[in-house]
Amino acid sequence: MSDRMSKAKDTLPEQPSDIGKTVGNVRSANPYVVAENVNVYYGDNHAIKNVSLEIGTKEVIALIGPSGCGKSTFLRCLNRMNDSIENARVSGHISLAGTDIYSKDLDPVALRARVGMVFQKPNPFPKSIYDNVAYGPRIHGLAANRAELDNIVHTSLERAGLLKEVIDRLDEPGTGLSGGQQQRLCIARTIAVDPDVILMDEPCSALDPIATARIEDLMYELSEDYAIVIVTHSMQQAARVSQRVAYFHLGSLVEVDETNRIFTNPRHRLTEDYITGRIG
Amino acid sequence: MQGNTLILILAATSVVAFFMGRARSLKLAGAPRIRGALHSLPGYYGYFTAIWCLLPALLVLSLWLSLESRLIIALLVEQLPAAQQALSAGELNLLLNNIQNLANGDAISGTADAMLQDAASRYSSYMIASRRLLAVVTLAVAGIGGVLAWRRVHPALRARNKVEQIVLVLLVAASSIAILTTIGIVLSVVFEALRFFQKVPLSEFLFGLNWSPQTAIRADQVGSSGSFGALPLFAGTLLITSIAMVVAVPVGLMTAIYLAEYSSRAVRAAAKPLLEILAGIPTVVYGFFAALTVAPWVRRAGEALGLEVASESALAAGLVMGVMIIPLVSSLTDDAINAVPSAMRDGALGLGSTRSETMRKVILPAALPGIVGGVLLAISRAIGETMIVVMAAGLAANLTANPFAAVTTVTVQIVTLLVGDQEFDSAKTLAAFALGLMLFTVTLSLNVVGLRVVRKYREQYE
Questions:
Q1: Is the ipTM of this complex over 0.95?
Q2: How many CB atoms are located within 10 Å of the residue B265 CB?
Q3: What's the fold here for domain B212-460?
Q4: Has this prediction a pTM greater than 0.90?
């Protein structure tokens, strides 16, 4: 850990605890996900360096930072998607509503039902629109009969703002939709499982501005019910959708604060350099 | 002059031509070299000169060699005494053979009389003269071609374009060899099969229930009915292929699923090459494994269960063929599974699917067309397989669905029809071509369907 943030060392406040090395406030008033001292290694590569962060209930938090800074890696720690990478190793402590998600007793499959994920590129399954949304409820046994399943599918599509566009063609393949519709289908598929947290890994980077605007509206509506963690390269997007912003740099969490404050009055020099376009 | 020496000299000449052409281009461009002084790199002028030196000479050489013997023989026949010229075509041929053999110092049939000696010495002198003339003409063509090309070397000459054009022609020629060979094989099989169908009606061949291809060579020969109903052969092929697929498809599929999704990197690194070794074993080795190890084992196992098992059974051949095909099925399935975008896998895992749910509900359905294509290719491989069935399945053309009985397949019958001394225009040997044509049609259509399915599936994610 000696060389961590070597570039930024001179500007960091000298405090004993690791949390103190992040500027701003990593705490949340009403924490739902709590990450303490998380480190991730890919083989010898130290990808996440001692990151601590709390994510509040029904809060939208944006993770920003230059490419390769570890924001997606951190996101994937929260639903243990890094498990499937062979040489990845995670240390530290992450809990979800008080449950340690890296404990040996915890089934990652059950965890992922509570922490949904939307990916960078829309990835509907090569199945019908209906089956795409019904996939999660089916594998988790959320519907007792066809009527309940229909209900879940319709509600989820409705909440994802897609129902009107696809109501007549639920039997057609999901891969036949446009990019923006596909991404909303993926969001519908995620909320059909009724998670507590939704992770979004650059959900709009493959979409045009109009589709992006629709997804952003959707995020705003969804934040009434879910905690949303969004990784984004667009600072405008972060400013529009999030209540808090976390700035990552070279695997370290540099600064966390209210969105307004980060964009108007960043405290750390690296954050300022990034949001003013000097790095990244 | 020997042909080999001539070719060596030609090669040496063209090497010289290369350096002369290159040197001339450099000289004409002048020193110091200016950018753009030469249209192409100096080497291209060298190649240009060398090609013009070599190609026309080689063309003359090959034309000469292909026409030479015909011309000399025509000359020889013209100078033979009238009595010999009046011989029938077959006898004349024999005589000419004798003359050539005598000239080459080989054994001849009959005695070497004065007429034969005379003709042989004339043949030798013609040959020597022809070869001398050939050497002179070829070298002259090479020299003239080289010099003309050398004189054409000029900074403005587009040597690179010309050389690349010739290379393109060579590439096209090389690839047409494979295509033309295929067409040739198909045509020869089709024409021989048509001759067969003139002797045996198509309906009898396709729907006849009795296969007994022994035809009488002499009129008084007994036990040679000569019936050509191919149905038992196709039934046997179908039976053995089905047994093979029953073994290969589930085992290959599960192997691929394990290797693609569950195995650790170390296991995969070890298992993949081992499977490839299995694919590399010659089928004749599988054949004697089937005949000497598996067939007796099947027989003993059957007897222990109170079943009557022939010592050569469809089951033994089918089992071993299935094992042989496992690597094919597993590697094609592995490819199909790996071609499913990892976004699908992530999406399913992210929704909380277990690995097996991800596999069953998302990855396998997405990979299904590729898997089906692979299985079709495996079936066509099984249908065309010969050695294992020759050795382990027997020769009896039984029309049966009993896997413990001896059966025979199309490929085995083609082998037995063409092995040994045969009249080549009898219905028996021609039947082999008809069978080959049928087999070819079946495997070709399976391959076409298989490849089309695989291709359609590949496009789906691009």
A1: no
A2: 9
A3: MetI-like fold (1.10.3720)
A4: no
